[in-house]
Amino acid sequence: MFSLSFNSAAPTVIVILFYILVIAMAVASYKKFLNGTKTKLPIFLHSLAIFLLLCAIFRPEISFTMKTKLRKPILVLIDTSLSMMAKDKKGITKIDRTREFLAKNKFFKNYTPIYYTFGSELNCIQKKDIEIIKAQQNATKIGFSVIEALKRHNENCSGIIVISDGYENQFVSWEEMKNKISVPIYTIGVGEQSSKDICISTVITNSPIYEGETLRISPIVSQYGFDGEKVSVSVRKNGSVVQTKMLELTSGFNRIDFEIPSLSQGDYLYQVSVQHGIGETNTDNNSSVFLVRVISPVIRILYVEGNLRWEYKFFKRFLESDKKLEPVFLVRVGESTFQQTGGRSIEIPSNILGSDRFLKNFHIIIFGDIDFSSFSESDLENLKNFVEKKWRCSLYGRRKFP
Question: Which CATH number goes with the domain that contains 113?
Fold first, then answer.
């Protein structure tokens, strides 16, 4: 767009009319007083001089603006799970149908497409790679892939196109997802009909656990086409069957719980498997392998006693007999003086409750028959803060040890 303006208080139209009036008067004067003589060149030069003089006075500004169309990116998510290898009546796989669609369709002409493949994970690819992609991922996580793609682009895109056969293997709360998505999502279905399938979508465990603690395993079984049927779900440890339960498939996602008691310290390889359904075409996703870690941390204990009494003697012997415990025993020998009487050797500060560095050495502090009146208010406040901090750690991250 062309625009003209002048550095003058007068409107642009008035200034332009003034230009025309002054130049017209100069031309008319030449023609009236120099009639019959050669006036073309003097008129031109005089008009040019007047024009340049007016430009010096009014200082015109000329600007050009051009509108350019910005091609915003659009994300294209291509399903590459194993179910995309299923063939239609003509013997063409779903992934090949996807390639045909992307090659023929011209709806990307106003956008810059960014291509991703997804299944159990999301991967960015180039357009030239579409011809060689393979459908070999064991799960279809549509919801996860959409959210992850948006995170990678900070939602700076026109929208998302999801090309899939539509079989989601992971439980997704679509009501919650609506609050996280601020761009349009366009879904393109591929295939004639979803194949019957049973799949281990995910496995929930409480690993890592402490030695002797019960291991809880909760596989989530997703299914399509097997409503009301019963299948067996097995848990194996290092290849051997540990437990088997029957599960009735009543919805898209079904949960079943297993408990494995009293494991010793170490790492264990577990596998959850679900029985194949009749007519199921894809059986590669009927099992899931995961690692379970059992830990046996040493618990450091500070036992503070007011005097050498019988209860202290027997309790001290009990704590020292457990190899998982690392106790330190202190007995008061003066108003604010303590002597170590056993356990792990450690440097004892003059003020045991006022030293954060000293208290941080322990997970548990036990007080016996002791008079707290000799401790200052700041010492007791410091002890209170230490206990509160340990309580918060045990509540929000009980696997962590200092």
Answer: 3.40.50.410
